[in-house]
Amino acid sequence: MDQLILQFFNVEVMAKAWPLLLRGLGMTALLCLAVIPLGLLGGLLAALASTSQSRWLRWPTVALIDLFRALPPLVLLIFVYSGLPFTGLQLPPFLAVVIAFLLNNSAYYGEIIRAGLISVPAGQSEAARSTGLTQSQTLIHVVLPQALRNVLPDLISNSVEVVKMTSLASVVSLAELLYSADMARSVTYNASPITLAALIYLILLWPVVRLMSRFQRKIAI
C-alpha cells in the first residue's frame, strides 16, 4: 500500500507538477472554447440540412453525419494531422485538433438537434404560420427553442464528452492537460501527475454531471 501511495498519490510530486498541469489545463479550456461553440453551430446547420425538404441537400448531409459519427475521433485526428501534409496542407497541432474534433462533434450535435426538431409536433409550426410568421421566424422563435429544450441534457452530455476527448490531443503533442501530466510523469518517473490530472477532470466535470442529472429529472417531472 505504501508503494501504491508513493507512486500514484505523492503530494510532493503533484505540487511540483502543478504549474505544468495548470498550463495544460489552459490549453484544454482553449480547445473546449473553440470546439464546443463551433460544434454546436455546425450541428445546427447539419440538423437543418438533414431535415430539409430537398433530398439533394438532405441525403449528402445524412451521409456525412453518419460518416463522421462512425469514424473514431482519434483516427480522424491522425488523418487530419498526418494525412493532409501529403496533399500539401500542413496544419499546426492546435488547428488540426480543432478541425478533427469539430467534424466529429458537429455530426453528434447535428444528430441530437435533428432529434429535437423531429420531437416538436407539426401542429406547433402550423399554428405559428397561421399567425402570420414566416417559415424562418417559425423556426427561430417557435420550433428551435422547443427542440433545444427537449434535447438539452443530451447536448450537455455531449459537451462533457468533448472535454474528455481533448485528452486525445496528446497524440499530436499538443500540450493539453493529459500531455502535460504525461510529461511530468516522464520527468519525475512517478504516476502522481496522471492522478492529479484525473482529479482535475473529476473536479471540473462532476458538478456538470450532477446538474445534468437534476435537470433530466426536472424535465421528466
Automatic annotation (TrEMBL):
Q: Where is the protein situated, by its record's location annotation?
A: Cell inner membrane; Cell membrane
Q: Write the record's keywords in alphabetical order, separated by commas.
A: Amino-acid transport, Cell membrane, Membrane, Transmembrane, Transmembrane helix, Transport
- Decide whether keyword Transmembrane helix is in the record: yes
Matching entries from InterPro entries are given as: AA_ABC_transptr_permease_3TM (IPR010065), ArtM/GltK/GlnP/TcyL/YhdX-like (IPR043429), MetI-like (IPR000515), MetI-like_sf (IPR035906)
Q: Which CDD domains match?
A: TM_PBP2
Q: Where is the signal peptide?
A: none
Domain ABC transmembrane type-1 span(s) in chain numbering: 25-213
Q: Where are the transmembrane segments?
A: 20-49, 61-84, 187-209
Name the principal localization, coarsely classed: membrane
Do the record's keywords include Plastid? no
- A Pfam cross-reference name: BPD_transp_1
Tell me the membrane topology, using the record's own terms.
Multi-pass membrane protein
**Similarity-based family:** Belongs to the binding-protein-dependent transport system permease family. HisMQ subfamily.
State the function annotated in the UniProt record.
Part of the binding-protein-dependent transport system for glutamine; probably responsible for the translocation of the substrate across the membrane.
- Protein name, as recorded: Amino acid ABC transporter permease
Task: Say which species the protein is native to.
Answer: Paracoccus albicereus
